[in-house]
Design goal:
The chain is α/β, with parallel strands linked by helices. The protein is built from five helices and five strands; from the N terminus they run E-H-E-H-E-H-E-H-E-H. The protein has one domain: Rossmann fold, CATH 3.40.50.2300. It has a five-stranded parallel sheet with strand order 2-1-3-4-5, sandwiched between helices. Helix 4 links the parallel strand 4 and strand 5. The longest helix is centred in the first third of the chain and has 13 residues. The protein is globular and about 30 Å long.
Amino acid sequence: MPEKKVLIVEDDLVQKRLNSKWVEQLGHKIVGIVSNSTDAISTTQKHQPDLILMDVRIEGKLDGIDTMHEIVKFSHASCIYITSNNDEYMAERIKGTNCLAVFNKPITVEDLKLHLSRLGG
């Protein structure tokens, strides 16, 4: 599978480290690791990632879902949401955000591997 550019949006230090380790272990390039909506939007504009690993609860005025609604206005990046609360309300909100998958915490390297392979080449 060709190398993909990945942006990690996560405010938990341990999860940031795990996600970045796994993305690199799977042979992909990290173009940024940020913890808030403003930085997620600007980093996406600058680096045009193929995939965004998006925690739903992040720092800033917007949560991860609202941030992705802003990002899809200018980017075709796919998104994998990471959450501790996956319900029908969330499922409705993520429509139109290029959602590839929704993972309940904690995630595993196997979860990422499966869904990164779905991005194709």
